[in-house]
## 1
Amino acid sequence: MPKIEVKNPIVDITGDEMANVVWEKIKNELILPFLDIKLVTFDLGIINRDLTSDKITYEAAEAINKYKTGVKCATITPDDKRVKEYKLKKKYPSPNGTIRNIINGTIFREPIILNNIPKFVNHWNEPVVIARHAFGDIYKSKEISVKKKGRLFLRFESFDKKQVIDEHIYDFPSSGVALSYFNIDQSIREFALSCFNFALNRKIPLYLSTKNTILQKYDEAFKKIFDELYEKKYKKIFKENNISYQHRLIDDMVACLMKWSGGFLWACKNYDGDVMSDLVAQGYGSLGLMTSVLLSPNGEILETEAAHGTVTSHYLQHKKGLDTSTNPIASIFAWSRGLLHRSNLDKNKSLKNFAQNLERVCIETIEGGHMTKDLALMVGPDQKWINTNQLFTIISKKLTKLKNT
Ligand code: NAP
Ligand code: MG
């Protein structure tokens, strides 16, 4: 059987340590033998980022904007220890942050559900996808400590000096603390667009949570912008696809999260998303089964990756020539989801089939009892585990068999 032809390229971002070892195996054993595809590759490994003074990260992001699909391997975000370890010129920022700012998208985190892998929250049978608005709020706040009795104000002054708002906040009877934070309608609107497009794409209902009963201007702005977009642009098509959008109070939403069995997209404000994405990840059990997608507001540009890091502890073993049992599933799904996006943009049915088969084969392999150590430990003491190379051999054999039938 000939390889499946893919007309347009995808951007392939390579990374660091064990994640990168797995990444290369995915390309060589699960992608390139089956697809006639042009990969536009950027090496975002820490050594190359240092060599290029991080220019490579910007180039990679621009390329994703150009080709509209990117798949990314986990990369080291250097801390002081890494700066020493790699003798870096400086402590570069997280590549994910740089890329997100250029694509201006929203990050969606979605667990992969496997029947035989127990979850901490047993009845979450379908994914809870978390979207985090990544602008403003406490992350751009300014705080002060006050040491004396006194009066606190919040002041806005328009640049043309025509409008001044002076809000009296509080009279401090003694020492204390205060803070101020902000957001902008444009960023909230772009977040909402990404969320509506993601939900539509995946055909799952969307919920936005806020505390608009308390923050009647701030959180109400989120609700209002989502509501307006829904009414104007998405209500009809959501109905046609049998999905819905709803705003809920954050406290009501966390109760629903525990009660429901998953299968929805939860749009979270910045801090809520920070906290809830870790809570939900833990509820599903394994980092090796968590995927992450960055989607632009118009739904056209997509970058995918595994949510886990470079798995340093396994890399140390690998460098000693020892076999590791590193879970490649989330990284494989980064590829499958990227290819799926490419297939939708290009209307390439064979590619779509391949991407779906790749996911199905992974799920069947693990549900058939072949899995890495991290998952086996979750199943229980009797569950056998295999190493990464063995798992790849099984998956690639299954893919080859599918191709030839
Ligand atoms: P990590 O690489 O996710 O690993 C934490 C631990 O989780 C591992 O030691 C391993 O546990 C387990 N684990 C994670 N992924 C696994 C997989 N695929 N298969 C099996 N076990 C897995 O996080 P980290 O150690 O905090 O960070 C390491 C480096 O990754 C850092 O330099 C950080 O900057 C970077 N990082 C990058 C990204 C990204 O690019 N998106 C995200 C997070 C972190 P055991 O050792 O117990 O087996
Ligand atoms: Mg967090």
## 2
Amino acid sequence: NKKKIIIDTDPGHDDAIALMLAILSKELKVLGITTVAGNVPLELTTINALKICDLLHNKEIEVFSGAEKPLKRKLITAEHVHGKTGLDGPYLPEPISKKNRDNAHDFIINSLEKFDSKTITICALGPLTNIAKVIVEKPHIAKKIKEIILMGGSFFEGGNITPVSEFNIFVDPESAKIVFNSEIPITMFPLDVTHKVLANKEFINSFKKFKNPLGDVVFSLLEFFSRYDVKKYKFLGPPLHDPNVIIYLLNPNFYVGKKLNVEIETSSELTLGMTVIDWWQVTNRKKNANFIYDVDTKSVLSLIQKILSNF
Ligand code: BDR
Ligand code: CA
């Protein structure tokens, strides 16, 4: 009785680790991986997703490429964080598998049609363009989604791409608005919680001691990922943003959340892409998301180590 998930992603160092965790977890069944333009352009996020599948010798999971750009805007990328390839750091051979296909949103729609309502959970690790397209194109089928668990937004923590906006939401705020207005159950991992899950030195070094080929790759990924964030934020290490989405599925008890209203700013020049959170319930707006804001960091880090050591 595995949980069925589709991972929508823009790898990305933290996306890559999230993919590894999902593919290696026995409790999860990854129906497919859909890619979106975000950290780097679509061609590269697709190649990167394939590289991770190859690394894990996974021949079964298919990768579907999706939106090349946000719904209404020009693409903004994050090479300053993830390097030119999106996965700078480790050596990862060019993908051998030719299993990638187009039409991420068709794949999502077909999967939803195939299974009973409330069977499939969508894990959204990048800009929400593909998901928004599904909702706009087939609103009734989209209602069959059990839950969307996403990394995005922030409130008390401020932004990482503008003073108030988190990258995934800022890149495609129109899509984020569609998702948050969809009435599909949403659990969100904003910077408020992901900035509490830092890959510290000891954690990063632990992968050097691994007796499997994954260890070296994860070590190099985290080493590269450290450079930018540690310099910028003076953190102990880079935040493991996206892996939280997968760990939550495996053990929601590690996290604390609050159901509240979230609206997305799509017009203001100053605060574009802000997730406006009604923390104190000062409006009558509908509670549309479970906002995760606290975490048992130690438990999350050791579960990540445990899963990756079992390859
Ligand atoms: C988010 O942006 C990307 O750079 C990361 O992969 C993560 O999904 C953090 O703001
Ligand atoms: Ca991401």
